[in-house]
User: Which sequence fits this backbone?
């Protein structure tokens, strides 16, 4: 079997806060193949962004625990020293973070910022880097003249595109997209998604697409991972997932999404997710699960059902 | 809008955008210059009013002049032969002449405007009581004589504090939570006690008790003739004043800068820079320092100018012959011309600095150039 | 501003050690202030401070605090007051009455066991008579039995005999001692030394002179003419230490000045700080809310005041007008209200103005006044509290600075004034370190107290800092 491009094994990231220890990423494992796009779906506060930051090792000061393994092309990123990690950042993995609207340095021209990684990582001259930056900008639909402008002169959508251009310019193997369209209006959202689709078709890129919006995720995903309360509760092939979700949470999620062509009564999930501080030892979704039974008092195992992984007692018998 | 396009020989077209920007910029600068001048004029005028106590000081001068003239006339042996009435008449004439010469015959309000115009054109007139070391009574000379010592001392101190706080703040913000960090935070409240107060105790310890350093003043008395020794002597005298300010203000300034940098390093674009794998030094320089430079520089420039007004109490404590001590002397003697002269110079300095800063700000921060930032 | 919020804040505050220290210090200073205000009303304190000499005539000049003896080997003397009018002091008065002439005998006796000489000796006499004033002779007996005739005089009404500066007596005693020792005493030994000295060679140098310890007596014998004549006397042997804090050049007990300095300093600082912050905030709010003309006008006024040099103008006003400390406070406030704080607060209010609930308030027809005072200001208030507390120290030292420069209120008993007096009288050259150190210590404590509290409050109230 071809070794995966990215393999995350038992990743745990806990944060220290005044209220206690937040277990944002609790024993998460998945892999991504080259050229694949995995969508990580979950609601706010389930730990998705922390997961993204954990992969690229950009954690804030109050990190308490950070263990596990993240293999990129066979190299465990967690074991690297900071200098080596810096070389990998952006060359092999790049990230487009949430709230990209403030991700550009306000006092430096856009073109220069997009060109920056080239100068740093590939030692390219300024002139050449700027040329490539302009090309990258036009690839994402921004006219080349805008390279000479400052971030405040760009609209929200354009800023987002610029950042995506920045993320692509060093031709990294993996690009993490953390809610790239949440702050934008629907029309801009659509155009950016289209752009990403084109990029996906034209080039062989691996995307990790994090979002709370199931509908959006379906446009790009080859694989879907559902995150709830810091854990991955389902990991499945995209087609299978969107047709027949397995985990109760996933089922409920799909039930709450309006469909265009069929008539559907929308459902919602009552209750709220558990706090990530000292999470319960039971199945974390149990409280809100309509199919809860006594086994759910314990943490469910990760069960494999026909190529998919589900973390639920309901499937215990079906898989292994 | 009608925009002309130039053809500069072979230089091609001047870009439209730049031309527009330049025009807007010039308009903005001119407006600022005018408003600042108005404020300066008002400030100097207010000082004139206060320094003359609304004309009261002039009354005092009048009375003094009158008395001295009357006395000199009545006691002058050359006039002994004249009758009392004649003497009185003569004295009165002389008095009126003197008033005219001093310009005191017109009411204060009119004169005050005259003072204002001459002050603003830097014609600062003559001091009433004070004289410069070289014997001149011209206010300008008196002030110019004292200015260098103040500038020397306070520019040195402020430069030291500036770089200390910048480098220290940056350094400590990297080591957030470390012991050094905690020490700085704990010692910041020392700034509650002003520098001059520390000065008193430093003098007590190092001059009075230990006798290592001088009590105050600019140089040893008598001053060394050799310029090198002179410089050394001045340096020796600067040690305590500089140290007293460092004691008081270095911790809090490092703390403030550090907090400032910490706040700015949690900005999203800094996160992004880190994600881009940029080396930390570059991030500091380009992503933390550069956006924060405008307010830092503004603060520094204003502090510097403010300190040139002579931290009056510090200069008094150390007997430093600068414009602070000059101010104290002038104010206690009610020597209004000197007081007004100093305030005028200060107002101009401040106005020029503010003006230059506005321009520098506009150059460094493109957002201001585009008029995006309102306040 | 509910009680719950206050309690919460207080709990957060206590978590910081520095805040606890600050609060303790402030508690101490407040305690001093309250004690001062309760025990000595302001007018009395000012009177005592101003009249100085007259009220505290029984105090020694420039005496160090008594507890200094704890650290010294050579114990400095305390002051002893013996008064015929006060029973229980070591004064005994006997009048043997006759018809026309009565004999008077007043005897003061005391033990003097200190290692150093008194600083001064004064005798205060009052007499009552009809026609002829009483006539007295004063004799002094040392423990070794030597009796010296000090003076003979007629007491008319109130009289004072400054024994220590009686030159004739000094010469007489010097001669006497020179004979006793067999050598001429090479310096002008003052009576308060010669009357207490061991009469041997040690007296030849003032540094080596020793105190003769034991029982001393002063006997006043006199003749009273007429039945109603009477004489009362008060002997004060001034020591070199006095009380908790010592005395100054005008014999004023420093504790009064130090105690009263506390409420004055705190009142000045807090009043200045609070008034300025609040007025600045209101100005900024009005400026931000009404915009246009009001905004421009107020902003110009602010820039004008910022160019006007604060300290020089303050100095000029206080020199020209000789103002009291409370007028000074008003001037300080007037000069500061258009300061840089206005610009900062205005920026904050401009942000607050855009908040949706302000819009909502407008929608339901709230008056401008209501919006400013009930909605905008309370939002910004927590952020200004730290700087409010922190600036108190600045004002306390401002007042002290003016006093030290000699420009403050000439009669108010403030710490700065005490330091100013000390400097004027060359305290540091004469070794009266306590005179400078005591008020300085209190100044430092007070400002540190506020600073510690302010910094801790800053960490709590400043939203950006809270994340750290």
Assistant:
């Amino acid at each position: 079997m071809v070794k995966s491009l990215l393999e995350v094994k038992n990743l745990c990231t806990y944060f220290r806060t005044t209220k206690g220890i937040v277990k944002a990423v609790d024993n998460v494992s998945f892999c991504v193949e080259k050229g694949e796009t995995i969508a990580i779906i979950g609601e706010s506060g389930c730990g998705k962004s922390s997961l993204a930051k954990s992969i690229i090792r950009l954690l804030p000061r109050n990190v308490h625990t950070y263990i596990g393994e993240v293999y990129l092309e066979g190299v465990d990123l967690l074991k690297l020293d900071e200098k080596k990690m810096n070389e990998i950042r952006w060359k092999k993995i790049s990230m487009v973070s949430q709230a990209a609207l403030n991700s550009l340095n306000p006092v430096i021209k856009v073109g220069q910022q997009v060109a920056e990684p080239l100068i740093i990582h590939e030692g390219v001259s300024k002139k050449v880097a700027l040329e490539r930056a302009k090309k990258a900008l036009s690839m994402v639909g921004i006219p080349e003249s805008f390279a000479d402008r400052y971030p405040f002169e760009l609209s929200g959508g354009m800023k987002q595109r610029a950042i995506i251009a920045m993320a692509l310019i060093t031709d990294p193997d993996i690009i993490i997209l953390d809610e790239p369209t949440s702050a934008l209006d629907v029309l801009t959202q659509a155009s950016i998604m289209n752009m990403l689709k084109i990029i996906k078709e034209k080039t062989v890129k691996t995307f990790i697409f994090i979002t709370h919006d199931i509908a959006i995720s379906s446009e790009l995903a080859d694989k879907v991972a559902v995150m709830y309360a810091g854990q991955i509760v389902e990991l499945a092939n995209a087609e299978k997932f969107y047709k027949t979700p397995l985990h109760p949470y996933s089922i409920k999620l799909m039930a709450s999404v309006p469909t265009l062509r069929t008539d559907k009564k929308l459902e919602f999930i009552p209750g709220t997710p558990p706090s990530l501080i000292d999470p319960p030892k039971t199945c974390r979704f149990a409280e809100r699960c309509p199919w809860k039974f006594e086994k759910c008092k314990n943490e469910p195992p990760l069960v494999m059902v026909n190529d998919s992984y589900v973390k639920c007692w309901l499937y215990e018998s079906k898989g292994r | 809008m009608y925009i002309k396009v130039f053809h500069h020989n072979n230089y091609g077209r001047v870009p439209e955008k730049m031309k527009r920007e330049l025009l807007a910029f010039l308009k903005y600068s001119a407006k600022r210059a005018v408003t600042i001048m108005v404020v300066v004029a008002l400030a100097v005028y207010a000082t004139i009013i206060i320094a003359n106590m609304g004309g009261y000081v002039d009354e005092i001068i009048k009375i003094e002049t009158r008395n001295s003239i009357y006395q000199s006339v009545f006691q002058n042996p050359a006039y002994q032969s004249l009758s009392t009435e004649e003497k009185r008449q003569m004295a009165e004439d002389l008095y009126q002449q003197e008033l005219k010469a001093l310009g005191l015959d017109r009411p204060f309000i009119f004169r005050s405007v005259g003072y204002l115009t001459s002050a603003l054109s830097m014609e600062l007139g003559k001091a009433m009581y004070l004289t410069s070391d070289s014997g001149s009574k011209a206010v300008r000379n008196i002030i110019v004589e004292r200015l260098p010592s103040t500038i020397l001392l306070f520019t040195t101190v402020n430069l030291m504090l500036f770089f200390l706080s910048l480098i220290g703040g940056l350094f400590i913000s990297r080591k957030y939570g470390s012991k050094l960090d905690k020490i700085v935070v704990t010692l910041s409240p020392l700034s509650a006690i002003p520098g001059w107060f520390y000065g008193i105790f430093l003098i007590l310890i190092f001059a009075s008790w230990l006798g290592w350093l001088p009590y105050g003043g600019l140089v040893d008395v008598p001053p060394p003739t050799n310029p090198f020794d002179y410089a050394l002597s001045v340096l020796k005298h600067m040690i305590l004043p500089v140290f007293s300010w460092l004691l008081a203000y270095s911790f809090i300034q490092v703390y403030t800068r550090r907090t400032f940098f910490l706040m700015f390093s949690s900005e999203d674009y800094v996160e992004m820079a880190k994600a881009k794998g940029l080396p930390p030094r570059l991030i500091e320089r380009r992503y933390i320092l550069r956006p924060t430079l405008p307010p830092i520089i503004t603060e520094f420039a204003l502090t510097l100018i403010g300190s040139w007004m002579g931290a009056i109490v510090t200069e008094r404590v150390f007997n430093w012959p600068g414009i602070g001590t000059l101010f104290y002397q002038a104010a206690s003697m009610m020597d209004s011309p000197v007081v007004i002269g100093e305030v005028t110079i200060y107002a101009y300095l401040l106005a020029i600095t503010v003006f230059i800063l506005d321009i520098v700000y506009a150059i460094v921060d493109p957002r201001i150039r585009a008029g995006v930032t309102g306040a | 501003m509910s009680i719950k919020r206050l309690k919460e804040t207080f709990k957060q505050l206590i978590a910081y050690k520095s805040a606890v220290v600050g609060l303790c210090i402030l508690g101490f200073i407040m305690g001093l202030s309250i004690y001062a205000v309760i025990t000595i009303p302001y007018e009395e304190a000012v009177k005592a401070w101003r009249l100085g000499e007259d009220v505290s005539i029984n105090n020694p000049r420039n005496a160090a605090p008594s507890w200094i003896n704890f650290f010294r080997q050579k114990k400095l003397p305390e002051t002893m007051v013996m008064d015929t009018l006060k029973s229980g002091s070591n004064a005994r008065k006997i009048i043997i009455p006759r018809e026309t002439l009565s004999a008077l005998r007043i005897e003061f006796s005391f033990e003097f066991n200190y290692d150093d000489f008194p600083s001064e000796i004064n005798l205060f006499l009052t007499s009552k008579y009809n026609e002829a004033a009483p006539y007295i002779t004063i004799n002094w007996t040392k423990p070794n039995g030597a009796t010296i005739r000090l003076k003979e005089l007629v007491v008319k009404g109130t009289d004072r005999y400054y024994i220590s500066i009686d030159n004739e007596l000094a010469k007489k005693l010097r001669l006497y001692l020179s004979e006793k020792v067999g050598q001429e005493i090479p310096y002008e030994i003052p009576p308060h030394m010669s009357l207490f000295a061991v009469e041997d060679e040690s007296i030849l140098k003032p540094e080596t002179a020793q105190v003769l310890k034991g029982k001393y007596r002063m006997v006043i014998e006199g003749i009273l003419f007429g039945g109603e004549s009477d004489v009362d006397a008060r002997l004060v042997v001034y020591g070199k230490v006095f009380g908790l804090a010592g005395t100054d050049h005008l014999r004023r007990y420093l504790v009064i000045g130090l105690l009263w300095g506390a409420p004055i300093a705190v009142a000045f600082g807090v009043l200045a700080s609070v008034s300025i912050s609040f007025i600045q905030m209101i100005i900024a709010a009005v400026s931000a809310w009404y915009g246009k003309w009001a905004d421009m006008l107020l902003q110009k006024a602010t820039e004008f005041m910022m160019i006007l040099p604060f300290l020089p103008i303050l100095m000029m006003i206080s020199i020209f007008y000789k103002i009291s400390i409370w007028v000074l406070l008003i001037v300080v406030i007037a000069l500061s209200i258009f300061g840089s704080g206005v610009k900062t607060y205005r920026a904050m209010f401009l942000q607050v103005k855009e908040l949706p609930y302000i819009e909502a308030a407008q929608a339901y027809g709230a008056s401008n006044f209501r919006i400013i005072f009930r909605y905008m200001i309370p939002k910004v208030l927590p952020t200004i509290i730290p700087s409010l507390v922190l600036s108190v120290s600045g004002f306390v030292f401002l007042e002290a600075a003016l006093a030290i420069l000699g420009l403050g209120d000439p009669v108010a008993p403030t710490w700065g004034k005490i330091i100013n007096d000390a400097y004027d009288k060359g305290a540091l050259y004469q070794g009266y370190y306590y005179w400078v150190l005591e008020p300085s210590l209190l100044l430092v404590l007070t400002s540190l107290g506020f600073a510690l509290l302010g910094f801790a409050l800053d960490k709590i109230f400043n939203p950006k800092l809270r994340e750290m």
In short: Chain A has a mean pLDDT of 83. The CA atoms of residues 4 and 33 of chain A lie 5 Å apart. The domain at 6-92+172-315 of chain A is CATH 3.40.50.300 (Rossmann fold).
